[in-house]
Amino acid sequence: MKRVNSVFSASILLVLGFCASAVWAQTARWPEQKANAWYRQQPWLVGSNYVPKSAINQLEMWQEVTFDPAEIDTELSWAEAIGMNTMRVFLHDLLWQQDPDGFKKRINRFLTIASRHHIRPMFVLFDSCWDPLPRLGPQHPPTPGVHNSGWVQSPGAAALADASQYPRLKAYLQGVVGAFANDDRILAWDVWNEPGADNAGSYAKEELQEGSERETVTPPAEMGVLILGDSG
To answer: Residue 106, Cβ neighbours under 10 Å: how many?
Structure first.
């Protein structure tokens, strides 16, 4: 439990260090009243995690070869029909490394489709759940009877263990948020999903030393910024 708390805290510090940039001006943390006021402006939010039925993970959802706007349009129309107005959608740092311009175009296309169905997504930038060894390219088929058999972490364990990759991760975060910071089709940014996830020892304490000084940031364009996870 102590180890999980340590990794959770270090993950927060690392990602907040990434956020301190020209994209997000440094300022005091939102007071509770301001956060509540932002939330009161939102409709009653109803949604789910979303990945198309044809995609085993976020890489297969977003890579150019397997990105499927027609399927997304169909599935979001179903969501709209039952009253959903938001979706939690996972991105991945390797997609930015592979093709930043193409990735932005596909995000924009997704937002156009979602907006047509009156759905404002919450984008997840990092995720510590499941396979710590993500790879670009074709993804393996689902394993029958295994929950989330192909879901991958972002960043993977290798990237977190290699400080030379931190600038790449920073460029991904700043590039994606910078491109869509003022896009009102987006509801919120989930900075890091379950940063305290243990994943059977995939993330050791020493892999998250950068960001030793906590910094606070302003959510872009008055959007919400969330860090969701189990801190222990």
So the answer is: 18
Token pair, residue 101, equals 């311009």
Q: What distances in angstroms separate CA 157 from CA 128, 134, 200, 203, one per listed residue?
A: 9, 9, 12, 6
Instruction: Tell me if residue 123 falls in helix, strand or coil.
Output: strand
- Calculated CA dihedral for residues 174, 208, 60, 102, nearest 10 degrees: 20
pLDDT of residue 29: 79
- Smallest CA-to-CA distance from 122 within 37, 29, 42 is with 42
SS3 (DSSP) at 178: helix
Find all residues with CB under 8 Å of 76, minimum gap 6, and list them.
50, 87, 113, 114, 116, 117, 119
* Residues 198-212 pLDDT 10s: 655 444 444 444 433
**Separation of first and last alpha carbons in the chain:** 6
> What are 52's two structure tokens?
């198309």
pTM of the model: 0.79
pLDDT digits 0-9 by tens, 109-147: 999 999 999 999 999 999 999 999 999 999 999 999 988
What Å distances lie between residue 183 and 116, 156, 177, 188, CA to CA?
A: 15, 28, 10, 10
Give whole-number Cα distances, 174 to 61, 180, 191, in Å: 21, 10, 12
Helix (H, G, I), strand (E, B) or coil at 49: strand
Strands 47-50 and 86-90: parallel
